[in-house]
Amino acid sequence: IESLKMEPLADVAMLPGEERVIDKDIIYICPFNAAVKGKVFITNYRLYFKNTDSETPVILDVPLGVISRVEKMGGASSRGENSYGLEITCKDMRNLRFALKQEGHSRRDIFEIIFKYAFPLSHGMQLFAFLSQEKYEENGWNVYEAMEEYRRQGVPNSEWRVTFINKNYELCDTYPTILVVPYKATEEDLKRVATFRSRCRIPVLSWFHKENHAVITRCSQPLVGMSGKRNKDDERYLDLIREANGTTKLTIYDARPNVNAVANKATGGGYEGDDAYQNAELVFLDIHNIHVMRESLKKLKDIVYPGVEESHWLSSLESTHWLEHIKLVLSGAIQVADKVSSGSSVVVHCSDGWDRTAQLTSLAMLMLDSYYRTLRGFQVLLEKEWISFGHKFASRIGHGDKNHADQDRSPIFVQFIDCVWQMTKQFPTAFEFNERLLVVILDHLYSCRFGTFLYNCESARESNNVRVKTVSLWSFVNRDTSLYINPFYTPESSCVLYPVASMRHLELWVTYYIRWNPRIQHQSPVEQRYKELLALRDQYLKKLEELQLSDSAPSSTHLTNRSTPNAATPNQHITHLQTPF
């Protein structure tokens, strides 16, 4: 019955598979202007608000996946204008407040509907990605093929082999099915090493340096415990990694602060001690855990939304420690890249090897390998180091789950994308993709429109048939790549990028974190102007081509096709065309 009363939704193009659920007259308490009267439309995918009270449009278009919590504001007897309504907290650095009329439980239906559709998993319903009927020409699920990517790196070879020991996820249920391990390690060795690594996440190859054969390998912490257990197979295995290219001392980068690594012994974890691993050097990178990162971003949100803390901006920003964490992650990745570039192999781990480890390996790979700096290569990097190796997206983001205070939530992937953005700022010509791609990736990290970031690992994605039942984000991105191309890009194949990870060279990513503030300018005028010039150049080149074609045509047609009377000869045209360059 409700649906019969709904008026047509002219302003928003609904997605295939998207259905309207309810409309309601409502007041949006806009933090940048006054309260705005309008209508809110809720579908199974988004919350859409449009004002009805003025000429200037005020529009909100918020995927429900972005919502972290919904609360009732005020009660039936609350005094004061607009004091009764809903408060919605979002995962993408904004909050929304709506006011309703106080009579007759007017907010009950809308509260229940938003609560149900924003948190479908908590209500036994499916995420929108499984309901979407979008169709694209390219199947983005084929962007990353593990064997193809390893072959591109130059693997397998006489030092490294491919193993299918995990093809049914029996060795490690959070690893992918295809793994690359030292050539000399037997399947039995791998099984024995798995017993001594947290969650059975054994050291495996992430990246192979074609020239010097040094490698980046990743894993989880060793299960040393309080009594300082040793495992001969694990020690020998790390030696095989070292020997593969004749590295004299294997460097083990433990992403954690030293104290945390020691504290992990109490819960059965720990780190590689000097006495047991004599041909290895252990370096602690001092990157804090997921809880510290969550609190840091929460503080950042407090100072940028809704109003930017003007009076003590620099000290407020510093007190969030967000840029300090960015600095530590980047600086750790620089150390990894530098070590590998100089010919030494490395092992990278944190506690479980799916948060800080993924940040470090993928950033180091981005610094070392220009392929990952292309639009396609970057997609491969995310699919490989983050998605296939089991970064726990479902737990860290909480897709479709109402437990907003869950201690597993953390912006680890957002922090990584911020680090990538910092690199694009320091090397404006080195990346084929632009800032827009990074923002689109983060928007769909939350939206639940695509299957790309759903679930915690490959085995879970497989059992939920994600590749068949949902669309990949890359199908959407690769449909029109021109939107994501950096006009300043200059391909350079062999260049290693070392960003400067000092506080003076890092900046807050304003166009992401403060983009809801209407006073923020979204595109740099320089980039805009450059794009216009490129478009102009293409226009001229096209004209030039047409003129050359018409020039080589027989003269009679040539004359009749002239569009302008007494046009100059093609040669004159050409000189004129070349002047702006």
Automatic annotation (TrEMBL):
Which InterPro entries does the entry link to? GRAM, Myotubularin, Myotubularin-like_Pase_dom, PH-like_dom_sf, Prot-tyrosine_phosphatase-like, Tyr_Pase_AS, Tyr_Pase_cat, Tyr_Pase_dom
Q: Which residues of this UniProt protein bind substrate? A: N289, I290, C350, S351, D352, G353, W354, D355, R356
Q: Which domain of life is it from?
A: Eukaryota
Q: What is its EC number?
A: 3.1.3.95
- How the protein sits in the membrane? Peripheral membrane protein
Myotubularin phosphatase domain ranges (all copies): 140-513
Spell out the subcellular localization from the entry. Answer: Cell membrane; Cell projection, Filopodium; Cell projection, Ruffle; Cytoplasm, Myofibril, Sarcomere
Domain (Tyrosine specific protein phosphatases) ranges: 320-366
Tell me which Pfam families the record gives.
GRAM (PF02893), Myotub-related (PF06602)
Q: Matching SUPFAM superfamilies, A to Z?
A: (Phosphotyrosine protein) phosphatases II, PH domain-like
Question: One GO MF term, please?
Answer: phosphoprotein phosphatase activity
The family assignment reads: Belongs to the protein-tyrosine phosphatase family. Non-receptor class myotubularin subfamily.
What's the name of the protein?
Myotubularin
Organism annotation: Sinocyclocheilus rhinocerous
Q: Corresponding gene?
A: mtm1
